[in-house]
Amino acid sequence: MAAAHQPLPTALDRIRVGSAPDSWGVWFPDDARQVPWRRFLDEVAEAGYAWIELGPYGYLPTDPARLTDETARRGLTVSAGTVFTALHRGPAVWDATWRHVAQVAELTRAMGARHLVVIPAFWRDDKTAELIESPELTSAQWRDLATGMERLAHQVRETYGLEIVVHPHADTHIDGEANVARFLDATDPDLVRLCLDTGHYAYCGGDSVKLIETYGDRIGYLHLKQVDPAILATVVEQGVPFGPAVQRGVMCEPPAGVPALEPVLTAAQGLGIDLFAIVEQDMYPCPPDQPFPIAQRTRRYLRGCGA
User: Fold this and answer.
1) Which residue has the higher pLDDT, 69 or 131?
2) Rounded CA separation 150/139 (Å)
3) In the CATH scheme, what is the code of domain 15-304?
């Protein structure tokens, strides 16, 4: 009797897989504990990825001609830039926010990318993890956040031809299911879509497949990430801030964690649109030799999922 054949994974032909400096332990433009940018570019290409994000502005070269040369000769293409905003603080922060956004958007457009990933401000200090403002927004702050993000989306589109995708993130005001739903319901779907980060959403108690099924028309971009459920349970129980939680290994290599990525990718494929799915495994800080073999194994795993 012939041996039974395992079914081949469904081809995820609408999913464009890439990686990012974050998967190499890069959180800041310049930090002695981070992998140098040339090594990141060499290794991300060798690991089998064709798409990358810019990471924190200033980590990769900011001269478009130089960056184009560096990426092109490695067979890499930029999928998005990333900006940080604190729009819940109201109109007073607009000018400073736009200066930062314009700088990143200019480079993003010059590199041929179409997306700008927008991360809300942390309510903890990103280096010391100290509490710097309330984890809860007032009704007025929610209005400022929603209207500010719509204004940002409109101006980025009109000025640079880019689309923003807002990234729910641990230790920010747009984090788990309730706050993500509140944010989406308060913003114009023609202007504001999400970058669904599967790891951050799971970290905050959310179900990525449910979010895709409920708000499919608002999903514009993916970050692929998993959390270690045992470490997460301890982190939640002890109230550990996100930065120290990362140092404990709360974000882990797939397929060891949650959520399972195959159902997420299948649900995303079902949306019928082209989506970037950028691997991000938060590991700051990490030994310089740690990221590359993980990146290789993760790329093989995602190919096995059909991506």
Assistant:
1) 69
2) 17
3) 3.20.20.150
Q: Check: CB of residue 281 under 8 Å from CB of residue 23.
A: yes
Please provide residue 48's backbone torsions phi and psi, each rounded to the nearest 5 degrees: 105, 15
Sole residue written with tokens 């404990």:
248
pLDDT (tens digit, 9 = 90+) per residue, 138-192?
A: 999 999 999 999 999 999 999 999 999 999 999 999 999 999 999 999 999 999 9
Q: What is the DSSP string of 183-214?
A: HHHHS-TTT-EEEEEHHHHHHTT--HHHHHHH
User: Does residue 252 contact residue 227 with C-beta atoms inside 8 Å?
Assistant: yes
pLDDT tens profile 265-288: 999 999 999 999 999 999 999 999
- Which token pair is 279? 């691997």
Crossing angle of helices 94-110/139-160, nearest 10°? 40
Q: What angle do CA 262, 266, 271 make, to 5 degrees?
A: 150
Q: For the chain, how far is it from start to end, CA to CA, in angstroms?
A: 32
Spell out the alpha helix ranges (H) of 90-222: 94-110, 139-160, 177-186, 198-203, 208-214
DSSP assignments along 33-92, one per residue: TSPPHHHHHHHHHHTT--EEE--STTSS---HHHHHHHHHTTT-EEEEEEEEE-GGG-GG
Determine how β-strand 51-53 pairs with β-strand 77-85: parallel
How far apart CA 231 and CA 251 sit, in angstroms, is 9
